[in-house]
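Quarterly update from the structural biology core.
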Amino acid sequence: MPSKLTIGGQAVIEGVMMRSTNKYAIAVRKPNKKISVKKFKLKDYPTLNKTPIIRGIFRFIETLSIGIKGISYSANESTGEQDNINAWEIFFTLIISIGMTILLFYMAPLFLAKIITKDTGLLFNVIDGILRLIIFIAYLLIIAQLPDIKRIFQYHGAEHMTVHAYENKEKLTIKNIKKYSTLHPRCGTNFILIVFILSLLIFTMIPYRGYFFRLGTRLLLLPLIAGLSYEFLKFAGKYQDNNFVKILTYPGLLLQKITTKKPEDKMIEVAIKSLKALI
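Predicted structure, tokenized:
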């Protein structure tokens, strides 16, 4: 089976979403144990998808949007209830999500760094960056203890293993897929870690002009950092067998040990359904 598509995806509630450039498919285990599968088209924006850095910013926003739609759809399918989410609900959910991200990973580290050190230069930025990373890892470790999140992380593992099998031109069977790792270099967890590392490097070059100046410049530079991170992730995925790339992506793979877990066979079955619908 030739591998022609670049496949990404994410875990949803009792299911897996697989996506390519112009479409995505969601497979969900229903209360009656059957698997429902639905395919969705993505609008094509050739210029945005081909322009370096800009495509990363666009893909980040697009991923957030279809991620919320996927969670909503899977919640309905996995419970047997129908409560369709509209465009305004998606918009407000995005705003709340972005607001919580700014509060937890930008405002809080800056405030704590200001308490820890009186330095306003390199040391302050390093402490700020390290605190941001510590808060992120702590957040993942805490939510990983929740039973529902544990299952989502198992489906996340099933998604990665299935993509690995597809990329290695394996027949998509549970037996074949179980040979592969739950860790993948193109994972969104890697993307977030790259954002944090690039943020630390770029923010050290910004002079100190007060708390709100620093907060504002960090937020303004976030789209640029997201775009650069996407380019690196795309490069890493293309050359994932290169030893130097393996070293660069290793911290992200370690972080995936939190966000992915070994799936049950029935979870792999759902991931297979999703990928087969896509290809």
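The longest strand covers residues 23-29.
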